[in-house]
Amino acid sequence: xxxxxxxxxxxxxxxxxxxxxxxxxxxxxxxxxxxxxxxxxxxxxxxxxxxxxxxxxxxxxxxxxxxxxxxxxxxxxxxxxxxxxxxxxxxxxxxxxxxxxxxxxxxxxxxxxxxxxxxxxxxxxxxxxxxxxxxxxxxxxxxxxxxxxxxxxxxxxxxxxxxxxxxxxxxxxxxxxxxxxxxxxxxxxxxxxxxxxxxxxxxxxxxxxxxxxxxxxxxxxxxxxxxxxxxxxxxxxxxxxxxxxxxxxxxxxxxxxxxxxxxxxxxxxxxxxxxxxxxxxxxxxxxxxxxxxxxxxxxxxxxxxxxxxxxxxxxxxxxxxxxxxxxxxxxxxxxxxxxxxxxxxxxxxxxxxxxxxxxx
Amino acid sequence: xxxxxxxxxxxxxxxxxxxxxxxxxxxxxxxxxxxxxxxxxxxxxxxxxxxxxxxxxxxxxxxxxxxxxxxxxxxxxxxxxxxxxxxxxxxxxxxxxxxxxxxxxxxxxxxxxxxxxxxxxxxxxxxxxxxxxxxxxxxxxxxxxxxxxxxxxxxxxxxxxxxxxxxxxxxxxxxxxxxxxxxxxxxxxxxxxxxxxxxxxxxxxxxxxxxxxxxxxxxxxxxxxxxxxxxxxxxxxxxxxxxxxxxxxxxxxxxxxxxxxxxxxxxxxxxxxxxxxxxxxxxxxxxxxxxxxxxxxxxxxxxxxxxxxxxxxxxxxxxxxxxxxxxxxxxxxxxxxxxxxxxxxxxxx
Lengths: 360, 349
Hints:
heterodimer, A: alpha/beta, 8-stranded mixed sheet, about 35% helix, globular, B: 6-stranded mixed sheet, 4-stranded antiparallel sheet
């Protein structure tokens, strides 16, 4: 759980993403879905990637897995255990997928094949990557179902996906993801389609999968609560770029980027009674034909002229590992959301100054 | 909403604006044969009762399939109840004819979850908001001005009223939905997951708007949501539903400070909070399994199949009561009603 986990040898990087960009040509122009993402994933750690819809958090991981459509233009570098994946052919990638890096998607109904039993689907993953008999694979499949706490695994292995509930299906997907003892598990909004009580069960199953395999995990979600509970390190994304990186504690307790602070202020909390939320004005920019400068500046209470001219890069603060992309990050430190975003919060009735502003 | 504590205390002396008594809603399940015979019922809502007081927000929370949205629809008479009674300011809705019901609808409006599906894409926003006014014959008399006013009220620019829904972002569309619901100056707004489809930074603005509107216009909200964090923020009182029944109802602060029903406790403990240190040290009540099918709900207490108390703490003899007898929603000494034979306050946050 912590970076001092016994399986984690510090500095041992399994996945290294460098300056990854993804563009999609469309009729309306070039969609810049990912605009330069870099991160290192260390053995055994959980990296949480958080961002709102359209921030590029999912596309980043699809690019890592080589799962984007052919029209996508991908550049940069993705090294898995030192091997470059972006230049690898499909055959080579197929050997990595499922064995080296595996994925858990949001919707377990669409990621499982409806016409095969779940036992067969788990066994398939094993048979593709290992030289074992069908019988051995089937036996292992049942064991895996047991690991993710599916009751009566022997019988359930013969069930089809539609016979299981959403939570059970997601457990099956996790069983498939951990089947070949991967080094990296990428979980993309794994609990978003599920109810909270089931979410708690699935997060526990993911944790089990991670402990059993010793894999590092990338947890992609829009839910700051899930990130707070699961991640060792956090990367906050906005408009296709990471805008803040650090340990979970750093990002949640001493954010250095106004967007992160704004997100925390927008969130109604279960554990604290808040009288008034402090929303972020405006809406995320369109990722087609992005204007120069910081993409957050139109919504930022700290924005000055330089913010519209020059896009800030990720820079460290007093702690070299806590990075933020903001020209004025020193003015964010130590402030509560309401200090910075007060203007919007104090509006008696939002009169077009808040989110009500129509996008021009 | 700051005066809530006082309000809740004094609610007993006030008359509710909206009352629901023992609402039951069953949906028929048909067989696959040619005759499609009725082979059973989905028990979506089973005996739900509550009062909504003037200028109050009542949160209705629960997981998918608990019947919270069906309850909201039955309350508005959008779907007829199988049994039970809904009254608005003392007037029983079941006894009303079509014409009278239509007049009453001016006082009770709804905002839907999905701002993409609830606005007609072919009609400009002005017309969307004007529609309720036209239907009720109020447009001729200054309707145009009223539409502009409504747009401004929800934080949109009146001059953008001739645009179409697709030209607006999700949060703005939800504001349009709110403007439409406000057009007839209702007393009660039913909000069915009004912010669930929105990103957090946008959600906050809509929640603040709803708060402001309530303070300004004295509205009563029935706020239906699966998100307990959102409900804690907006609601004065909260009713927790499980498989068609209310299992606990309490003033918001009380529900979080000392939940009495094992389901409420599990729900509160399952929701992650955006605070890493708290998350690491939090005590979790993990409940196993999934919600049973409402077509064939368990006997007695409907939560007993997943109840950690039933499984771990109760003796064989004590369990018998859970299996045989439906627990009533009454105060068992915790200061507010809960539907558990063995209710016990817990501190979780």
